[in-house]
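Section: protein folds

Sequence with per-residue tokens
===
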Amino acid sequence: MGACGQMSPRSAPSRVLRSFCSGQPRHSVAPAVAPKPPISRALPFEAIPRSSPNAWVNLYQFWRTNSFPNFHHIMQKNFQNLGPIYRETLGTYDSVHLLLPRDAAVLFQTEGIFPRRMGINSWIAHRTLRNHKCGVFLLNGEDWRSDRLILNKEVISPVGTRKFLPFLNTVAEDFAESIHRLIRKNARRSLTVDLYHDLFRFTLEASSYALYGQRLGLLDENPNPESQHFIDTVETMLRTTLPLLFLPPGVMRWVNNKLWRDHMEAWDAIFKHADKCIQNIYQEFCLGQPRKYSGIMAELLLQEEMPLDSIKANMTELTAGSVDTTAMPLLFTLFELARNPQVQTALREEVKAAAVSTRELSKVMNDMPLLKGAIKETLRLYPVGITVQRYPMRDVVLQNYCVPAGTLCQVGLYAMGRSPEVFRDPERYDPSRWTGKEDNSFKALAFGFGSRQCIGRRLAEAEMTLFLMHILRNFKIDTVSKADLKTVYGFILMPEKPPLLTFRPID
């Protein structure tokens, strides 16, 4: 796929696959992966169990019954009925779905030097129609690799991450103080609140500070309405992405014109917001302001390794991806800590032992393995994206079936995280499962894997870690309802109804 090209059509077995299945030497696998049966005995691609044979009838049923919000539950049920591998044809996609970590390991070994995840045609169509460049989320091939290597230095490397940690820490401290302010106004010395929108404001404030070196004032008592509008447009963009996901680009705008128009207008607003932030920092940069760390974009400008339009494209993607995708895991984590007081207490003791004000933040964070485990545990039960995808660069055997090169393969993260075949007592929230000697290879894939893992991974992990550190240090968290949260899928996983949480200050 080219820089902003369309995805390849559904794959069919080829002569290469037939020769592959007739006895060629199999590819090596990692030591942690169970040995595969000889390739000569592997079954053909067509033998993989299927959820539904007709792509367009299947898509019509999804639209007619409004099944998209239950996509994660449908996928989980398909694994229960069809086994740990199955095919699904839905609109323009013919996917192979995988459940087990050992199959994920084999899949990732075939991704090559230019890994490809599932493209999003509606996003690509917006960039094409508006003459915008694509960032690394949408790019492929050499264009993706060149941008990614430059971004890695400032966004995901340990050296780059350490630079923006103080920015995130300041915003996390301010959020804790904002809760204290509200509690001081309450005679009961507590605060019971739905934090859904507050967490959006926190994540946008923190990520914008790290990306652009600018505070937006979203934690003030009267936050900027323009920034709140940006949060609303991100939600609209995500909500409208899923129904458009399985349609050919030329059909999107004609199937539901309002849906398409809302999607385009949301992306336009996202680009407008990001462009405003970019222009501010670019003007300061051109004026030669005193040199100090001023966020990720300023560092990219100083490097002069990437064209300005490529910097803009990637910063816009990072801005859009940094709101809901971090706010939702934080909300789920707070809920799980509220209904698991023993876990909350253990985490608080770890935070107290690790958080010494004179120490470097990265060292403090490294001394909180249980807190890191809590974030992994949240993402196991509530992954932001319910699958991670790759197109294998060569023919591969998965679960004793031959899968051709170029086939869309999706590892079902939501179903894996709740599978008793993969995790002991999977419904239990237990961060310690990530800190012991248990083999957790290819079980924590919420941010993807390898060179195409989420570019904002370290930003999101640091944001969540520092937020939870300050919340646990300052408050005890409780919830009236201990029942499981019902979740819906709107291109990211979110609660059907946000929980009410109670915060009480620690004396």
Remarks:
- The two ends are 58 Å apart (CA to CA).
- The CA atoms of residues 233 and 266 lie 5 Å apart.
